[in-house]
């Protein structure tokens, strides 16, 4: 009956951050993905400051310059585009718009969706009936149509594209949050808080939100990849971001006519998209394990072996 | 069961009504078709005639009332571009999309379930890691990029496959192949996750204590339990294709609803846009019913 | 050495976990003969189920590892056999039933199919298996066996599901049946029936029966011999009577001493004006009546036990009283006001006076809050109780009051054991300085020895602070030791209420008598006497 004596030698609790770092190191794929994403995000922040000018400068002698040719400088390492602009520089600059659209849409969709989901999950009145229906309506609305409407009526600016994409992603967060809240609502510690007289807002923000946040973040990571693909598709179809702004999807589209003689125009930006979305997927996959107490041991054991 | 059906039909009808209203008015915001179909120097008179012919000269609310009245007798209006009933245009395109969706989803479902189940059986094993990695790549792949890379590779360089159209079996390979990738990646991951949960459950322990062999444990005991979340994703993905695999249809010149939708939007062929939305909404409604039916068949605890 | 039917020799099993390897069991040896009942007795974490899992090839390798030992079945070592060979033994020669039959039955297949499967995979034809299944269902006492075979697990009650598990396990008349906590989640009367069924079937088939349990009562009722385990090791082995009468190891002595139902019964609190008076409290869920007019009084400083089986409405009563659910009718008079019709503001005030301790502290404590945050939350919500600069000192004081240390306040719930967590939950309830604490099965999830300590703590606090308890429980021996008065509930109504002495010594109602008869005594001789008297009545 060692049970009731105060715990001898308290279990060395690593700080949360440290334990996450060691779990990240345990999964080599996730670690690589995280490093790659850091590079992409850094490029998006810093790249345009230095490369904005180079990326836009036309150079007719560098038209469709082949890749891996260092003569014209490192910016032409991936080749030049149809107007002789360096592809590598353009990809780095385009990272900003691409990331900004995805991050903006995901953040907006998550905040609005989660708020609506919280309301729908906690109320027993009419809101609980109506809000899920909003999700249904949005889900059935063709996002292409929405994009075209925005394109024709408003202007196809980065901000408007963010709005379009955010609207289409709201249902995901709304439904997830609502479903999680309906489950968390019945948990004992929520009942215990009620018995103590905790206000509704205290219960939501102190007790419910911290529980569902990991799930929302995991979904957001995955969704980030999805939104990137959606933006690329819209830009590819010509109903997203318009030149002279650039995104990776738009670059793929612009390179399409030159596919047969200059494959690299479309290939590199496409590769940038696939690597970024793959990294996000890998990271989301890792988060699902790392944030689930029942699955976490897989990473923790791995960490022991490797480190 | 009957009350469930009526309830579902009502809910879908309300959503659809919202959609029709929104689309009808919003799509008018994209501009006047007259400018698109008549030459720039067309006379004011011919413009007036064109507008009168297509009922564009009335106030918007009157146009909408007339549209609803026609709709009540299943008249979806005419396509400006093709001068045919809009419904005929849409159904013709829908046929192709339905075939594409059915073939792709069948292949996806079977491969994803088999591979995902086997991956879940030995979590962390070589097979699992390989399958997971490829499924993640699949889920991350931008379809338009895969499509054009495939065209360069198989049509331009190797000359094996035709670039567009629907004439022969060969025409179908690339569209299906490209459409396959993302749903396969996504569904495989859901199968794997659900199977890991199911294989760790208490009833699997009972089956092992009974002496059931591994294969029936995976495919009889665990799989049926794991199918519920899987079916949900299959439904979502099938709905996405039915809604129009716009990119793939556009690139491969495939005459499905996705291509029709984007063409009609760009050319302000409003009757076709609305008809497309209604036909696909109906198809998705039917598919969701089938999915609910599948739930009930798979899990005896679910009764409607 | 004589050949036993099943013999575990020197078995050590290790699990590789985050914090290094854990020895689940070390050098465990036991044996089971035909026609014998062996019990493995142990508390949670004692490793009592591990050797059975090893017998059934249910240990996942990795993370598990069988570090040493042999498991001989009819003289052959199971651990050196191939998985296929072991599969042929599982279900056919050695069968197993589990705690919580609902999760152990596959929800999507009919129970008939699942029972048939056992026979079909071991070579019986489907048609024979179907016939046999109906016979088995009849044998384990399932009404309408033909109809039951095509039903699904969720359509049965908890006790019936365990009968189904038994039917499935016994389909091929195995030589050994392993029952892992077979009656733990069941009501006492159902437990008695299931144990009776196991006894009867064992007598008929002559199989060896291994029962894994935490409950001395189950050992007393069933076992010929008992193996006592603690922290992965066997501390004592012997005949059930010897071990109970004359325990050798200090752990066994402690365990037996902690068994509830042996102390003096309370004489009750003096007659006085009641603190809380319920009259005709009702609760309906649609057409279903969960509470049908509940009336009782609670005195200051009194422990009022509410006992009843699952579905009796005892937890609903607690929820209604605490306004987690709205009552459908009746009054609850406290300090001259009706608790059931308070305004939100009055309700907020009332929360301070009536607190609750829940069954499972793992779930009732928010895992993301430290002990300090958990306890001080009371004062965040009710601002006027305590100025903020005194919170820390008061948390320390409360922790010491419930037998923990002040320095524990910066830890998180998962760093404590189950009993300690329940102490934290009690400290949290005390933070509001309540008059009444509702304990909803507050000690049911705890091990026997811990249970005794928590009860002791509750008793101490009652005297120190003048608290009243409404003590909801299904475990009669605990109630006998702790309560002043007892209310017996069945199907939403109060069947009987009276002093603890009257209820336990002279129960008036048939239902109360049945409940008492079904509850198990830790003394094997007492149980044997009860068994005999039951048999006489039956004849």
From TrEMBL, chain A:
<keyword id="KW-0653">Protein transport</keyword>
<feature type="transmembrane region" description="Helical">
    <location>
        <begin position="99"/>
        <end position="121"/>
    </location>
</feature>
<dbReference type="Pfam" id="PF12911">
    <property type="entry name" value="OppC_N"/>
</dbReference>
<dbReference type="InterPro" id="IPR025966">
    <property type="entry name" value="OppC_N"/>
</dbReference>
<dbReference type="GO" id="GO:0015833">
    <property type="term" value="P:peptide transport"/>
</dbReference>
<feature type="transmembrane region" description="Helical">
    <location>
        <begin position="209"/>
        <end position="230"/>
    </location>
</feature>
<feature type="transmembrane region" description="Helical">
    <location>
        <begin position="262"/>
        <end position="283"/>
    </location>
</feature>
<keyword id="KW-0571">Peptide transport</keyword>
<dbReference type="GO" id="GO:0055085">
    <property type="term" value="P:transmembrane transport"/>
</dbReference>
<dbReference type="Pfam" id="PF00528">
    <property type="entry name" value="BPD_transp_1"/>
</dbReference>
<feature type="domain" description="ABC transmembrane type-1">
    <location>
        <begin position="95"/>
        <end position="284"/>
    </location>
</feature>
<comment type="similarity">
    <text>Belongs to the binding-protein-dependent transport system permease family.</text>
</comment>
<dbReference type="GO" id="GO:0005886">
    <property type="term" value="C:plasma membrane"/>
</dbReference>
<keyword id="KW-1003">Cell membrane</keyword>
<dbReference type="GO" id="GO:0015031">
    <property type="term" value="P:protein transport"/>
</dbReference>
Automatic annotation (TrEMBL), chain B:
<keyword id="KW-0813">Transport</keyword>
<feature type="transmembrane region" description="Helical">
    <location>
        <begin position="212"/>
        <end position="234"/>
    </location>
</feature>
<protein>
    <submittedName>
        <fullName>Peptide/nickel transport system permease protein</fullName>
    </submittedName>
</protein>
<dbReference type="InterPro" id="IPR035906">
    <property type="entry name" value="MetI-like_sf"/>
</dbReference>
<keyword id="KW-0812">Transmembrane</keyword>
<feature type="domain" description="ABC transmembrane type-1">
    <location>
        <begin position="94"/>
        <end position="291"/>
    </location>
</feature>
<feature type="transmembrane region" description="Helical">
    <location>
        <begin position="270"/>
        <end position="298"/>
    </location>
</feature>
<dbReference type="GO" id="GO:0005886">
    <property type="term" value="C:plasma membrane"/>
</dbReference>
<feature type="transmembrane region" description="Helical">
    <location>
        <begin position="96"/>
        <end position="121"/>
    </location>
</feature>
<keyword id="KW-1133">Transmembrane helix</keyword>
<keyword id="KW-0472">Membrane</keyword>
<dbReference type="Pfam" id="PF00528">
    <property type="entry name" value="BPD_transp_1"/>
</dbReference>
<feature type="transmembrane region" description="Helical">
    <location>
        <begin position="240"/>
        <end position="258"/>
    </location>
</feature>
<feature type="transmembrane region" description="Helical">
    <location>
        <begin position="169"/>
        <end position="191"/>
    </location>
</feature>
<keyword id="KW-1003">Cell membrane</keyword>
UniProtKB/TrEMBL annotation, chain C:
<protein>
    <submittedName>
        <fullName>Peptide/nickel transport system ATP-binding protein</fullName>
    </submittedName>
</protein>
<keyword id="KW-0067">ATP-binding</keyword>
<dbReference type="GO" id="GO:0005886">
    <property type="term" value="C:plasma membrane"/>
</dbReference>
<dbReference type="InterPro" id="IPR027417">
    <property type="entry name" value="P-loop_NTPase"/>
</dbReference>
<keyword id="KW-0813">Transport</keyword>
<dbReference type="GO" id="GO:0016887">
    <property type="term" value="F:ATP hydrolysis activity"/>
</dbReference>
<dbReference type="InterPro" id="IPR050319">
    <property type="entry name" value="ABC_transp_ATP-bind"/>
</dbReference>
<dbReference type="InterPro" id="IPR017871">
    <property type="entry name" value="ABC_transporter-like_CS"/>
</dbReference>
<keyword id="KW-0547">Nucleotide-binding</keyword>
<feature type="domain" description="ABC transporter">
    <location>
        <begin position="6"/>
        <end position="256"/>
    </location>
</feature>
<dbReference type="InterPro" id="IPR003439">
    <property type="entry name" value="ABC_transporter-like_ATP-bd"/>
</dbReference>
<dbReference type="GO" id="GO:0055085">
    <property type="term" value="P:transmembrane transport"/>
</dbReference>
<comment type="similarity">
    <text>Belongs to the ABC transporter superfamily.</text>
</comment>
<feature type="domain" description="ABC transporter">
    <location>
        <begin position="276"/>
        <end position="516"/>
    </location>
</feature>
<dbReference type="GO" id="GO:0015833">
    <property type="term" value="P:peptide transport"/>
</dbReference>
